[in-house]
Every structure is written in structure tokens, then in C-alpha cells.
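re: ur question from yesterday

yeah so i grabbed the chain u mentioned. its 106 aa long if i counted rite. heres the sequnce exactly as i have it in my notes:
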Amino acid sequence: MKSAAHGRRDWFLYVLECTGGTLYTGISTDVARRFEQHRNGKGARYTRARPPLRVLASFQFDSQSQALKAEIAFKKLRPLDKRKCCEDASIAIAEAREHYGDAATP
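ran it thru and got these C-alpha cells back, copy pasting raw so excuse formatting
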């Protein structure tokens, strides 16, 4: 998604839940497009072997550099901590929607 300021693109760290209950983490400027690429076998080798079931969470960043740094840090977390982080993000988004309406959706 392009930001109005300076025509820059927002970057996203995304977390996919894959077959077998595993998680895959990546970055992209378009999470929906990237998810479909993974589902169609055009993504990473990991998701070709373990097809993704759903996008568990996505986190928006102002630059590719920020998203990449977040991805590296996220990948160092234990699987349980990754799931907790995704759950907390989902709760925060739901609370924002409840308070501000659908305009709060990232």
C-alpha cells in the first residue's frame, strides 16, 4: 500500500499458519498477493512443502528495512511466543475496531 506522504510503500511482516501447525514468517508490500503465491506453490520452498492455511497476523512498517529487522527478531522467538504475539495483535485490532469502527483496520 502506498503512503500519501512521499509515495513510499508500506511493508508488512506476515505470519502464516501452515499445514501441520507450523508457522512461516516473511515480509511483503502486499500480504494478500503473497499469501496467494504461497498457496499456489509460487512462494518459499518451506510453504511448497507445508502449504499455508491462513494469515495468522500481519504487522505494518514504514520501510523494508524496518520490516526485515522485525522479521529477524520475530524468527528468533519460540513458537509459543510467536503465537502469543499474533494473538495479542489480533486482540488489539479487534479492540480498535470496537472503539473506532472499521476505519481502525490496518
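noticed a couple things. The longest helix spans residues 79-100. also The helical segments are 31-39, 45-49, 64-75, 79-100.
anyway ttyl
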